[in-house]
Specification:
Strand content of chain B: under 5%
Structural class of chain B: mainly alpha
Number of domains of chain B: 1
Number of helices of chain B: 9
Largest sheet of chain B: none
CATH superfamily of chain A: P-loop containing nucleotide triphosphate hydrolases
Distance between the termini of chain B: 27 Å
CATH topology of chain A: Rossmann fold
Radius of gyration of chain A: 17 Å
Oligomer: heterodimer
Shape of chain A: globular
Number of strands of chain B: 0
Largest sheet of chain A: 5 strands, parallel
CATH class of chain A: Alpha Beta
Chain lengths: 200, 221
């Protein structure tokens, strides 16, 4: 049973206090949606949980591991605003590098991941030739490869069509059914079962 | 170590698929050095005296030109965020990126320097010393430059700021490298200069990836 616990987190950007004393816990199998207006600190919160930013105050633990520990970083998958794809590299080359950075899987099956996300014949296509939606799909195909328990998804449905959104929603539900945890931000409606929500 | 080689080959692959990113600074290096004989004097003695200074100053400027591309594309497309939150040691990944930068900017300069040395009437011994100083010091330029590049990565059009930050740190290298080549023309001992360049290389190899990692984390906040 894994558990993420966020304790009394405060975040400031410039002179703006985005949030303070934010505490919550998330257990295995739960999906948390962070909602709030533009500029309310959703991305900042996700970046703090991912270990990219440091909070002004407070701490985060995942299974008793602090957010700067190696175990925490292996157990966490963060997909941000940008698709993290280099336009000079092919889809497979991009995925190979991102997988190497994120996980310790020895021989991931990229072909199946691309098939699941609906981009079966795009393995050797340079990422620079893809549309915004296709790039987003390539980035999200990491969800079919990753073995991390905690997924942090910042606006994962941006630029996706309704089919794409359904595929990702199903994958998130499957991940949580297998004992994973997911935190996401989105302004769109999402049909994920047992969705918890906090508002900033 | 695996992530070092993966990052190195990835960066080299990306550069060879978009060759203008590393060819432009090299073109600048060759063109500007070959303009000096036309602008100053084709006289062998004059050129021989100023050759070490010319080659070294233009080397620094062309490395500075290429430093902007060290992290910018990875910052713009979000790969840098993934690198920073990776469970692999960040200094090791940055060392791999800096090594790729040196292979694409410093190494071609070392290989081109004998030709440009001949064009500026340097004798064979001075060309040998010039190459030796370039071998010792161009990795330092990339390593020290990576610290500046990490500090300014989130700032748009940061070329001028990067130069202001980095050039003062390049000055000791410039002094030791040019004086080694100049003194070798008069058959004077250059051991002191080479020891200094070697120690700068060792110090920057040990410290720069760590300082660069801290700077990058601060820049991405």
């Amino acid at each position: 049973m894994s558990m993420l616990s966020v304790n009394k987190l405060s975040c400031q950007r410039g002179y703006n206090l985005l949030f303070e004393n934010l505490s919550f816990e998330l257990n295995s199998g739960e999906v948390l949606r962070i909602s709030g207006q533009n500029g309310s600190g959703k991305t900042s919160l996700l970046k703090i949980i991912a270990g990219l930013n440091t909070p002004e105050l407070g701490s985060i633990e995942f299974d008793q591991n602090q957010s700067n520990s190696e175990t925490y970083q292996i157990e966490t998958l963060y997909l941000g605003h940008y698709a993290a794809l280099s336009s000079e590299l092919s889809c497979i080359e991009n995925l190979e590098y991102l997988t190497k950075l994120n996980t310790e899987i020895l021989s991931p099956n990229f072909h199946d991941a691309l098939k699941e996300i609906g981009l079966e014949n795009y393995e050797h296509e340079p990422a620079g030739n893809l549309s915004a939606g296709q790039k987003r799909r390539i980035a999200l195909s990491l969800l079919f490869i990753s073995q991390s328990k905690l997924w942090l998804l910042d606006e994962p449905f941006t630029a996706l069509d309704s089919d794409g959104i359904k595929i990702i929603e199903n994958q998130i539900e499957k991940h949580c059914a297998n004992g994973g945890l997911c935190i996401l931000t989105t302004h769109q409606d999402c049909n994920i079962k047992s969705l918890k929500e906090i508002s900033l | 170590m695996n992530i070092f080689l993966t990052t190195l080959t990835r960066d080299l692959k990306m550069a060879f698929r978009n060759p203008s990113s590393f060819l432009n600074p090299l073109m600048f290096f060759v063109i500007s050095i070959s303009l000096f004989p036309i602008a100053i004097s084709p006289n062998a003695e004059t050129l021989m005296n100023i050759a070490p200074g010319i080659i070294w100053v233009i080397t620094m400027l062309s490395v500075l030109l290429s430093l902007n591309s060290l992290f910018h594309s990875d910052y713009d497309n979000g790969v840098l965020e993934q690198i920073v939150i990776s469970h692999h040691p960040l200094p090791l990944i940055l060392l791999a990126k800096t090594t790729a930068h040196w292979i694409l900017s410093g190494l071609p300069i070392i290989l081109l320097s004998p030709l440009l040395g001949i064009a500026l009437f340097l004798d064979s011994n001075s060309i040998y010393i010039l190459m030796l100083t370039l071998c010792l010091a161009t990795p330092c330029l990339s390593l020290i430059g990576s610290i500046g590049a990490s500090l300014v990565v989130s700032i748009k059009n940061s070329g001028m700021l990067l130069s202001l930050l980095i050039l003062p740190l390049y000055i000791p290298i410039l002094i030791f490298a040019t004086s080694a080549v100049s003194q070798s023309q008069f058959n004077l001992s250059i051991n002191g200069q080479l020891y200094f360049l070697g120690s700068i290389l060792i110090i920057s190899l040990i410290t720069a990836p760590f300082v660069s990692a801290v700077a990058l984390r601060v820049s991405l906040e």
